[in-house]
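I have been asked to look over a protein record a colleague put together. Alongside the sequence sits a line of tokens, each denoting a local backbone shape. I have pasted the whole thing underneath without changing anything:
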Amino acid sequence: MLLGVPAETVPGETRVAVTSETARKLVAQGHTVRVQSGAGVAASITDAAYQGAGAEITDAPGAFACELVLKVRSPSGAEVALMKPGTVVVGMLNPFDPEGLQRLAAGGLTAFALEAAPRTTRAQSMDVLSSQANIAGYKAVIIAADRYQRFFPMLMTAAGTVKAARVVILGVGVAGLQAIATAKRLGAVIEASDVRPSVKEQVESLGAKFIDVSYDTDEEKEAAQGVGGYAKPMPQSWLDRQKIEVAKRVAQADIVITTALIPGRPAPVLVTEDMVKAMKPGSVVVDLAAPKAATAP
């Protein structure tokens, strides 16, 4: 099969759909891999590395003319125009974006959105969301540590003791758990919140404290179970109680990292403008849900 790997054109996107190692495996299976020149440069993969793996270097029209096109992000209108009807596109295609889906359908393309792969053991190798969320949770803490003007661990010096940073993490999915683990390794004191009480044990096993909010009705208890590893929208009564508890922690926090997402819906607003105003000068907020309508202002 003829496989095309075009360069990503979304501003700030540095990933590439196929690495040179993966290209080598595909070529060994008998496929022809055509990579757009420069597609891997932002990911530190040169054209020479692809050629060394047996791939061919081409231009954008050459990559999009293949039978199967592998992408990171959903193709733009200009990119769809470069593909023939019947082309198969695989990537993170944002299946909850009606405009994007219509664009793919109008181009006569067959599209496979990897975000829609079920999060099961059998489909684990295709679970791009978990792998990317894992990286995002780690990077969120590293970015916060860089922006924070003091230190994460407690430091004892001849001049006195510097207290450990207080970190609040909202949303304890894959990204949140990795953020907890990374912040803990850096020596921070961590509190975390999630609508699902089942994650409390995971939070505490990583050395963080879980922010408990009571579930007073059957509706709240049912919603708290989540589905497919994701949270479900919670009743307003529970959200109001959570907001009170979160506000207390945010006011004392040095770092706040928000990760909460609900598939197909705007991200819930967990940190309000008033909460941000109540934070200490020099505090840092990292919002991983910003592209899906921010969880923090």
